[in-house]
Amino acid sequence: DGLVVSENMKSKNVDVKIPKSELEAEDKGAEEERPRESDSNILDLSSDYPRDKHISIQRHLADLEKLADLREDERKPCPLCPEEKFKACYSHKLHRHLQNLHWKVSVEFEGYRMCICHLSCRPVKPNLVGDQTLSKMGAHYHCIICSATIVRRTDMIGHINRHVNKGETESRFSTVRAPKSSYKVVKESATDVQVLPNHSTPQKTDSYFNPKMKLNRQLIFCALAVLAGERKPIECLDAFGATGIMGLQWAKHLRSSVKVTINDCNENSVTMIKENCHLNKMKVKLNSREEDNGETVGNGEENSDTIEVTKMDANVVMHLRSFDFIHLDPFGTSVNYLDSAFRNVRNLGIVSLTSTDISSLYAKAQHVALRHYGCNIVRTEYYKELAARAVIAAVTRAAARCNKGIEVLLAVALEHFVLVVVRVLRGPTPADDSAKKVRYLIHCQWCEERVFQKEGNMVEENPYQQLPCDCHGSMPGKTAVLLGPLWAGALFNTGFLRRMLLEAVQYGLDEAQPLLKTLVCESECTTPKHFSTPSPGDENKQEECGVYIRTPNTFAESYLVHGKRKSEEVLRGTAKRQRAEHSAEHPPFYYNIHRHSIKGMNMPKLNKFLNYLSEAGYRVSRTHFDPMGVRTNAPLAQFKTVLMKYSTPTYVGAQAEGPVHLPGEVQVGEEVPAAAVIRVEEAELAEDDKSGVAAAVFTESYPTHCAAE
Q1: Domains in the chain, please, with CATH?
Q2: Tens digits of per-residue pLDDT, 314-357?
Q3: Which of 36, 106, 120, 495 keeps 20 to 30 A from 341, CA to CA?
Q4: PROSITE patterns under this entry (predicted)?
Q5: Could you tell me if 177 and 231 are in contact, meaning their C-beta atoms sit under 8 angstroms apart?
Q6: Is the pTM of this model over 0.70?
């Protein structure tokens, strides 16, 4: 309406003369008469807006024209432009200037218009050619909330949206939490949580909720459910609560088996955790006091639906109290919290950590991995398992500093995170045994063969002799690199994984079940066709860490006190059985079938290739680290031999898939010299410089090399 009135006044050539005192009275009266919108998602700024707001922020174009004091017979300058940029002119020209240059490109926010300003509010860097700042003034916008100056209009719109998402809708940096109507309720595993609209791309002071980490939360829940079946009740800690969804899932499904503590150092996150507890009908315990919408529960009364919420640094809360289960999920690496986690964790407890610093762990930022984990890594075909072993090595060293050892129960490396779950063994002897499993890895950069360095401190004359390949003898220069230190032990505990699978089936965690089945097959190094669904009756046979684990069917073992060490005789017998089990643990690392495929040959299907390796007498399984990876104890030379035997030439498209009979009569079970494999790779490199049917020539020449050897 203000715009129409001003245009009518201009068309009638009416001189508008408003005294300055009358203008101030009208502005003051208008501010007092503006109602405050309580139902809006964003707070109204009219009553709380500062009196000294910038002149470029106005409600109507008429208000902007009043600042110019338009008069028909006088030249007036633009109030938002310096005289060097826009000289004084008559009212009709100034009106078009204000409307087209300032008003049309403004940014609107709750009835206010932030017009573009050309005054010298924002410093402009002088031009290198000369001082041309007068000809190129810095056009900018003034933020209505924080008084910041933004150059681009799109950046100003995004700047205002970030203020709205964070709840900062009052001026002068007075932070106010967004109203409940602007929250979004997300449901996961029968648990409701409130999240901010920018939960997927949060700011530094916001709570983070990532829907892609649902699988990670389900795996951690299964691990906690297994521990809750061993002893009750257990005290568990979610050190980085954010929205509190993980701790809420623990308390909602496991009930009286767990005592949940959710911690976060951000005040806004702690407030959101409390609201999410009330949303899920959970009581909140603060400073030995329980709150449930104003109701207080006595200290002597036990309630299974009570969650303790703390606001402090994660290192502090882990130093002050002891826990049976600790989960660390900070932003980035977890190495800064490992010492505190292992200091007070109870014996036979579990520590799980999620590392999201993928760029450093996956060898994209090798200097960061060296700084955080003290580990030298390069990009290899098995880089995901390399990342998991680097994290476990850091965990092992942190536990050893507290005279504790570890047993790795689970290690998962996927696209967005690396999850490691370990059981804590108290005592210097387990700490020494765990520390001995941290070794260096010798990696051949030519054929990607790898082997862990032998135990001992003696320096070998030729470390290349430990590698099964002969690349150093046939290639000039240095062909291998030393990686690590890395964890050289097992990455999985089969009994624990089977019980996790039972818990996933019991609670209906559909996303975790396929991965757990793959992990069980990988830990046993078997194909999925040999996988047997675990039954609760078999779980009483599982032994972990030298102790029997209490399960529903362990009444026959009532002479064992859970959580305590057994007698010396039973321990010695358990150690012997453990040594026999360690000899059959899964082989380290895996081979990518695409990486080692023969050029010009069609390789067999992955499942058929697994059967071929199994028929040759090797242990073989798929791996979750790589969908085309093969975990096997076969050396690389035998791996390539089987792959070559059952590959078909590319030019025979209609030929059925089957073995290629080699005239050299090379048996699959026999050891193939590594030099033959090297010559195969040399032939592959020579094919790049040839034209014609190179695949057929290579297929005919390969058996000749093998027979000659």
Answers
A1: 57-123+137-165 (no CATH), 185-287+305-455+465-494 (3.40.50.150), 591-649 (3.30.56.70)
A2: 999 999 999 999 999 998 899 999 999 999 999 999 999 999 99
A3: 495
A4: SAM_MT_TRM1, ZINC_FINGER_C2H2_1
A5: no
A6: no
